[in-house]
Amino acid sequence: MPVDHAIERIVRKDILACSPETPVAEAARRMAEAHCSSILVTENGKPIGIWTEHDALKIDLTHPDALNQPVRAVMSAPIKTLPLATTIGDAGMRFKLDGVRHFVVIDEGGAPIGIISQSDVILRHGIEHFLVLRSVRTALGRPMVAIDPGRSLADAVAEINEARVDAAVVWGGPGEEPGIITERDVVRLIGSGGILPASVGDVASRPLVCVSADESLLAARALLEERHIRHIGIKDAHGQLIGLLSFSDILATLQYEYVQRLDEALRERDEALLRSRRDLHLARRVIDASLDAIMIVDAAGLIEFVNPAFSQLTGYGPEEVIGQRPSILKSGRHDRAFYEKMWHSIGERGFWQGEIWNRRKDGELFPEWLTINVITDDHGNVSQYAAIFSDITERKRTEERIKNLAYFDVLTGLPNRRLFTDRLQVAIANAHRHTSRLAVMFLDLDLFKRINDSLGHGIGDRVLIETAHRLGLCMREGDTVARLGGDEFVILLPELEHVEDVAKLAERLIGHVKVPFVLDDHELYVTTSIGIAVYPEDGTSVETMVKNADTAMYRAKDMGRNSYQLYTAAMNARSFERLAMEASLRHALERGEFVLAYQLKLDLGTGRMSGVEALVRWRHPEMGLVSPTEFIPLAENMGLISAIGAWVLKAACRQCKSWNDLGLPPVRIAVNVSALQFRESDVPGVVRQALAETGLPPRFLELELTESVLMQRVEEVAGVLHELRAMGVTISIDDFGTGYSSLSYLKRMPIDSLKIDRSFVHDITENGDGAAIVSTIINLAHNLKMKAVAEGVETREQADFLRERGCDEIQGFLISRPVSADDLISLFDRNLLPV
Known about the structure:
By secondary structure, the chain is an alpha/beta fold. Helix content is 42%, strand content 23%. The strands form 8 sheets. Strands 25-26-28-29-30-31-32-33 form an 8-stranded mixed β-barrel. Strands 14-13-17-16-15 form a 5-stranded antiparallel beta sheet. The longest helix has 43 residues, at 247-289.
């Protein structure tokens, strides 16, 4: 095939032109002188037609004025044009299709810049490889026109024109070689200005240059180019003239092959286009019929196409989203980091796929499975993004249902054995890590089989569902109720502070379950037996904990049902004892079971009583005297500490006033205020009321606070203490040195004395560290203008050490144990310092 190049390299830009009124003879003369095969006819600088050598054949040479008529009358119009960018191959094709031998070449603006002829194409087409493979014989197509030399020139021209050829053979006379007459000869004769010859034989060019029919077309073209002629004769093997070969014939042969191959290429292209159209049509139908939403976004991030499924899933029509950004669907559930990670994947890998939440037009959020692919052009640049997504709401529901089937009981909706086991494993690991406790409760409905056997499984199932509901009402956040199967339930309490808490929950569960079940016309009474295992005492593995809770449950059944049992007997006993204590403690205040004991403080300077600390005791009618270390934490957990504290304060003030009224030496009475009481109650108000009701002067009341009180809400605590000081109440810090007091806090608080904790006093004669700490606290108190009081003094050596270090007061068994109000009277106004 020819190598295609633009015609720009072969176009002749020296345009020969004339006006429309130029006589034909003059136009022909100019063409002959310029050796041009055409002349452009222009008017006002614009081409309006062209007159070629072939047009000269159309002139009636018998007419007397034929050569003087204006060229306008015989020119070809409108002119045929080719863009400058046309390839040489396409130009050759146009010569064949349009049936012309000249084209005016125009630039992008339509202005003429040159002319191209068939000869230009043949000589400069770069088709040597094609011509060398084909013989001259292959170019024979049109019949040869042969004219007798005696014919008139006018008749010869008319015959050539009628045969639609550009040349004819002119036979010679006897012994004379044939000649040829061509279009160019006619133009030359017209432009000569003389009288035209009478016969064609007089103007024929002789001899006719000939080639063998078996020569290659390349050799024939070379001969044409060498002789500067456009036609040669063709002879057969016997030397007989069988035709003429011209540039037009070579071009026709070339174009036949070219067209044939072009036809094949066009046919293949048409078939490919047809397939492409079918594919595109099928693709469009598939896209339109797809249940997945499809959205195409351009490189600028604007939506340019959506399919019907997109509108169905999002509620947005195409006209509402095309030209918008995809963020119109943004749900707000994903942060910036999510989208940055998505676009990083798209940039690195050319796609992203995953689950994302978007928003429909009506505002509803929905989950979708989204795939984004990058579409690039031929140069690898991003041209579009294709997003395909589907609503996975139902799929997620299905997954949730499958998950529920795997981890939840179908009947009650509670976690099943598998999920309970997983949660218990996690809870055990957490408890081990934090050295904490947890509990497992195993519940079984008593005689449940009777309900199924007598009323049917339908009623039995409803009982189980209601039981699950009742158990759930008793749970804290973070607790787990699960159904193992049948009428067996288990409960996980992952955070357990006191064993008594699980025992109280067991009682509450028993109470909730035994409330009658009213189902249809049936009123059913159901009870439950509960077994409890506590980590780590009763086991450290899932299997052991559940097994031991189950064992404890059967022990509860053996003991009469409708009860609970802890797996460890000692723990069981402590639990029952604590529950009994709780029940009694709730009524101890109203029953008057609290009493006060008093322990005096000794002034180391005078050896006499300087104050008294009131200590609360609980005289239980059955358990006897209960230590404060047992019932004070219980009272705090039960929310009773503020009420008990108010009673102690009032009773202590009343007793101190009673001693004053007896004329005994005046002493301060100290009352402990717990951190919880200080936080929950209005301490200044309680103190003010106690002083008002008992008539005790405020200077005889001392409040003892722990260091932890000072560390909580510092500004608020300081305000309360200043208010108490303004009343005249004395304030001391109890158990000093065991907390984390800040010296800056101590300076800001109106504190009168520091009580050295008994643990430091115990060590002052045992090791140097204890002695150093006590000495430091005494010096600190004095430097802050406070008194130093040591508690827990039990030996004479301790008392001597404290006196030597300047301690102001001491308190402990060395001086006196806590005694009753009556027994304390004998200790007033005595020198109590041991000798």
